[in-house]
Amino acid sequence: xxxxxxxxxxxxxxxxxxxxxxxxxxxxxxxxxxxxxxxxxxxxxxxxxxxxxxxxxxxxxxxxxxxxxxxxxxxxxxxxxxxxxxxxxxxxxxxxxxxxxxxxxxxxxxxxxxxxxxxxxxxxxxxxxxxxxxxxxxxxxxxxxxxxxxxxxxxxxxxxxxxxxxxxxxxxxxxxxxxxxxxxxxxxxxxxxxxxxxxxxxxxxxxxxxxxxxxxxxxxxxxxxxxxxxxxxxx
Length: 235
Ligand SMILES: Nc1ncnc2c1ncn2[C@@H]1O[C@H](COP(=O)(O)OP(=O)(O)OP(=O)(O)O)[C@@H](O)[C@H]1O
Ligand SMILES: [Mg+2]
Prior knowledge:
The chain is an alpha/beta fold. About 35% of the residues lie in helices and about 25% in strands. It has helices at about 50-55, 80-90, 105-115, 120-135, 150-160, 180-195, 210-215; strands at about 10-15, 25-35, 40-45, 65-70, 75, 90-95, 170-175, 200-205, 215-220, 225-230. The longest helix has 17 residues, at about 180-195. The structure holds adenosine-5'-triphosphate and magnesium ion (MG). Magnesium ion (MG) binds near residues 50, 51 and 173.
């Protein structure tokens, strides 16, 4: 069914949202395989279920049918504390509005997921966060409160934070949604380069056709279904 080299996959995912007459069948039998080192775009009109799918793949929400597999283990049925442990260990998130702690420095923001996982000493966390911020070109802004960074800089802090715990997969919902074209292309290129260098996988939701076409795969969603998946010109 799945091969061992699949980082994250899902089968036949069903999800209903809302109550009674406002109940929406948000996902209708979605299946997807994400291999290490590959970059995937999910595209489709507003309301088609992209974010709902990302939350389920990211173990932040439970499907009503179907299952999610992480590193060849079926995880959907696990209790919340086990899901949280796997999420912290394997998955990095970047949200549309990056949700940085705005009074915290860039450095402290990147350490948040490391503190949550609790595997590193204070010194090791500081060093790793500084390394990640250097990788996204922010070495000179470590101690800057994030509310005093530009939108593009904040997005790069969010990228560094998503990579904090060496995730196997990064899930990003419109990661460059609030940036201008030049900065969004830059943030995406940076993220893609780091992900490919480390053989992680990346799944991102985007409305930007240039970004989608720079991915290895594009999955088109409509009305809660993936209606087409195509490979893009690798390179
Ligand atoms: N908590 C909720 N209660 C009821 N319906 C919801 C809830 N969250 C989302 N929905 C509905 O589920 C469907 C899928 O929503 P989702 O947020 O996944 O769309 P999306 O593809 O991410 O859209 P966008 O591009 O606008 O972000 C939509 O019809 C939405 O209105
Ligand atoms: Mg959405």
